[in-house]
Amino acid sequence: MAIGLLILLGISGLSGVRAQTWGLVWRLPDDTVQALHQWQHIRQTGAEALRLETDSVPAWLLTAADSLGLALFVELPITEEPARQLRRRWPEAREMLRRLLAQIAGHPSVRAVGLARLADTADPEACAYFESLRDDVRRARPDLQVYYETRFIEGDRCGKAVDFVLLDARDAADPLQLLRRWQQAHPTVPVGLGRLGTWVRADTLRGLRVPHSPEWQARYLEHHLNRLQGAFEGWVFVYRWQDVERRRPALHLDRPFVEAYGLHDQQGRARPALDVVRGVFAGTQTVFAFPAGRSPSDSWPWAVLVGWVPIVLLVLSYRLSPLFRLLGARYFRAHGFYAEAVQYGRDLPTGALSVLGLAEGVALGVTLAVTAAMLRESPAAAWLVGLLPPELATPIVEAVRTPSVLLLVVPGSLVLLGGWALGVRLLSRWGRRTGFVQAWTLAHMPRWPLFLLMIAALSLKPDAGTGHVLLALWLLVEGWALVRTLRDVAQVVAGPGWLRAVLAVLHPGCWLLLAVLFGLSRGLYTGHTVMLWHLLTVR
What we know:
alpha/beta; TIM Barrel; 2 domains; eight-stranded parallel barrel; two-stranded antiparallel ribbon; 22 helices; 10 strands; elongated; disordered N terminus
């Protein structure tokens, strides 16, 4: 049956030389007949090349590609690795490359071998990996080219170690500009686009005015494929032929476990973008009409509305509680008198302090919710989530998709800091006796910068860079609050050194900072911290 389908497809060579060579990213389905049917339609689009997403290339697939004149790009399954991990995986990669070269021997359809996808090529330490495997390929198959795919442009350090480089252009606002930046930074290294496309939303909203609708995807490809035509010489791979399931959830997709970039959905139904790709690839059509539809309604400004809650609570406490005003004046203007008042439990407004804890929890929840929404488009955040096991990554992704869920931080903050205050109350028997309200005051007064952080989160431009800054500032605020709290504890509770050490370890802020420090230190050993820094700072 497979032979009959090959005859049906017909024998055809590559089309004439053009400025671009058009291709598609394709994953091998489980069914052989389905794969050959897909190839029939792929050839009808005018595609000249395929990037294969498969760990092993079956012999029948190579034979079909030889017959159809398709250029195949086969790749090692090495993805998003830091430079240090590339070095450690070099023996494993070399063995995988040896097996791959044995599989593709005698098949002229295979034109290039990808050595890694989205690795940390901003680190010069990675270059030795590419140089070594490049030499192995050239000894075995001098006719093969080698490449890698990267998200780094000016910061890339390993382009000269391969024959050409492919850029990840998924959801890029201007893919052509990415190519021009590369050509300016690395004029001697050929470049192409490894993944061009934008994702499609899961709901039924349609029309050009709806971001990430099927029509939006079609217009995106129409605009950029036409701009790329004749603008440079190199490979352009549209991402992808059909939606596939993801092994790990993605932050920026509304279906985290589906790679919804395909010209077809998971059921094989064609999207309007298929006609665009077919028209541009075959050179038969460059202009397409799609219904505009209706613009989606603006989202409810819940973050701004909820953000007023802690401000109003703080103003009411200050206005209605003279003791709260007195406590604030002592904290900011005469800290020694503040510590003395807390130590002896004088002039502590229990109700206003409870409202302060609630207001801080709401401010933190709003800040984290707004920051999480910004981090949806962050490559660094997406990469970090991809490192986590699915049972941890899934709830994080769900929280990012629905940021309002992070308002659960409010009761969580109250419970954790309330538990710490209770611990101070119980352990103070080995120091100076301290009541729960006194410990509550020590826990919450130093966290006043959370209100400023929330205002900044609601005021600044919502993008990934702002999200990174807000996340770093939150950690800084928590660290500063922890230091101030422990300093006040040393004065108010006093007691032996072990008591202050135990209270420090029990503080929730200490848990948070220790977890961050542990992750960064472990990442320094594995190289992941270096890659995280490059994702945050290197273009």
